[in-house]
C-alpha cells in the first residue's frame, strides 16, 4: 500500500512539473502555434478555480482534476518537439522553486470565465 502511495505521489509531482513545462513550451519560439494554444488552454484550466465538472458532485467532481487534466497534459507534452521539450524540462528543473503571484494572468483567467458565464446566462435569458 505504501509503495502505491509513493508511486501516486511521484506521478502527481511529475504532472505538476509538466504544467510548468507547458508554460515554458508556450514561450518557446520553436513550439508550433497549435501546441501553444492547447498548452495555454490546459494551463489556464488547471490553475482556474472554476471546473468543467463542479467538485461538489460526488466522484465526477474530481474526475477532471484527477484524470482529464493529466491526460490532456500528457497528450500535449507528446506534441511538443523533442528538443524543445528537453530544453523546457531543463528550464523548469533549474528554476527557483518559489511561487510567484501573477495578478495579470489571474485577472485574465477570471475575466475569461466571467465572459463565458455571461454568454451562457445570456443564452437562457
Automatic annotation (TrEMBL):
Subcellular location: Endomembrane system
Pfam families found in the cross-reference section: DUF1232 (PF06803)
Name of the molecule in the record: YkvA family protein
UniProt key word Nucleotide-binding: no
Transmembrane segments: 33-53, 59-81, 102-121
InterPro entries for this protein: DUF1232 (IPR010652)
Domain of life where this protein originates: Bacteria
Location, primary (coarse class): membrane
Residue intervals of the DUF1232 domain: 35-70
Membrane topology: Multi-pass membrane protein
Organism field: Aquibacillus salsiterrae
Protein's UniProt keywords contain Manganese: no
GO cellular component terms listed in the entry, alphabetical order: endomembrane system
Record keywords: Membrane, Transmembrane, Transmembrane helix
Amino acid at each position: 500500500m505504501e509503495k502505491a502511495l509513493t508511486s501516486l505521489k511521484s506521478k502527481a509531482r511529475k504532472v505538476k512539473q509538466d504544467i510548468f513545462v507547458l508554460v515554458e513550451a508556450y514561450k518557446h519560439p520553436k513550439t508550433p502555434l497549435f501546441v501553444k494554444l492547447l498548452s495555454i488552454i490546459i494551463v489556464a484550466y488547471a490553475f482556474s478555480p472554476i471546473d468543467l465538472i463542479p467538485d461538489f458532485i460526488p466522484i465526477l467532481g474530481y474526475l477532471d482534476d484527477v484524470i482529464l487534466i493529466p491526460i490532456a497534459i500528457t497528450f500535449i507534452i507528446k506534441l511538443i518537439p523533442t528538443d524543445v521539450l528537453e530544453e523546457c524540462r531543463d528550464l523548469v528543473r533549474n528554476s527557483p522553486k518559489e511561487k510567484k503571484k501573477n495578478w495579470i494572468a489571474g485577472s485574465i483567467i477570471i475575466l475569461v470565465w466571467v465572459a463565458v458565464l455571461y454568454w451562457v446566462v445570456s443564452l437562457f435569458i
